[in-house]
Amino acid sequence: MFEARDLSTPVAAIRDEHAPDVQVVDCERDFETLPPAQAEDLGLLVDTLEPASYPADWLPADAPQLLARYASSDFTVGMPGDGSVVWTRQTDPPIVIVKPRVQGSPESFIDFLLAEAFVELDLEVSEHFIGFFEETYPELNRAVDLGPNGTYQVAAALYDGWVGLQSREVFAEWHGDHPELADAWQDAGTRLEDRVAGLPRAVARGETEFADATELACAAIKHAIELPAPFAALDTDAYRDHGPEYAIRWAEKTFDSLAE
To answer: Cross-referenced Pfam families, in alphabetical order (predicted)?
Structure first.
C-alpha cells in the first residue's frame, strides 16, 4: 500500500530544513480518506499512532459524516479537499503521503507540493480546518448559506488561505537557496492568475459555484497573486492575525451581500 519515495536534491534540502524526521511515502491508490485498515498500515512505518480528536459540540448537527468521523477518536488520514499530497502529524514521526493522481504532473510541481508539506509541518498548523475554527465552526456554518457540504468546502478553503498567508513568506525566500522550487511556486501562481481574475464574472453568470470560487481564490493566496473582491479581503495581515474570527466575519458580510 505504501512505499518509501525518493526525493530530489532540492526537496530533500527543504525536508532537512523544515521537517527532518518526516517520512515520505507513495500510496498505491488514490483516496480522499484512507480506509481504516489501510490507515492502520501506517503503523508499520512509524513508532506510534496518536489519532486526533475534537469535541462533538464543535460540529453542527448536520456536519458531513466524514467530518464527524475525523473529529472522533478514529484514526482518520486524509479528507476531501486535501489535494494530491497529504501530511499527518497523527503519527510519530510525521508522514507525508503522495497520491497516484500526481502522475503526469511536471516533476517541478510535485517537488513544490512536497516542499509545501514540509513547510506546513514546520509551521505547526492543524492538519484540518476543524483544529483552526474549533468551537467557532458552528458560527461559520450559520454564516455560510450553502448546506453542510458547501460549508465544509468553504471552511477548508478559508483555512487553506490562512495557512497560505504564512507559507508564502517561506516560499518567497527560496529564490536564493532553492531557485528550482521558487520557480515552480511562481509558475503555479502564473497558471492561476487568469482563472482567479475571472472568478467574479464566472460566479455572477452561474458558471462557477461560490464554494468552488472560494476554493480557487484561497488556493491562490499562497502564490501571492492579486485576488478580486470579495476574496481580496482574505489576503490581509488582519486575516493572518485574527484567523477564525476574521474568516467568520468575512463569511457573514459576503453572504449578506450575495443575498441582496
So the answer is: DUF7089
Residue 219's pLDDT band, with cuts at 50, 70 and 90, is very high
Q: How many domains does the chain have?
A: 1
Q: How much of the chain exceeds pLDDT 70, in percent?
A: 100
* Preceding omega of 51 cis (within 30 degrees of 0): no
Q: How many CA atoms lie within 13 A of 231 on its CB side?
A: 28
Measured distance CA(56)–CA(54) in Å, rounded: 6
Specify whether the CB–CB gap between 190 and 197 falls below 8 A: no
- The answer to whether the CB of 73 falls within 8 A of the CB of 49 is no
- Residue 68 to residue 86: CA distance in whole angstroms: 19
C-alpha of 52 from chain center: 17
The answer to whether residues 192 and 223 touch, using CB atoms and an 8 Å cutoff, is yes
- Rg from Cα positions in the chain: 18
Interval 234-251 mean pLDDT: 98
Tens digit of pLDDT for each residue in 121-155?
A: 999 999 999 999 999 999 999 999 999 999 999 99
Number of residues that make up the chain: 260
Q: Which amino acid is at 20?
A: P
Alpha-carbon span 155 to 145, nearest angstrom: 12
Residue 5: count of CB within 10 angstroms of its CB: 16
Distance CA 50, CA 34 (A): 16
Residue 22 has pLDDT above 80, yes or no: yes
CA–CA distance, 215 with 203 (Å, rounded to integer): 13
pLDDT tens digits along 101-124: 999 999 999 999 999 999 999 999
* Its pTM surpasses 0.85: yes
The parent domain of residue 103 ranges over: 2-259
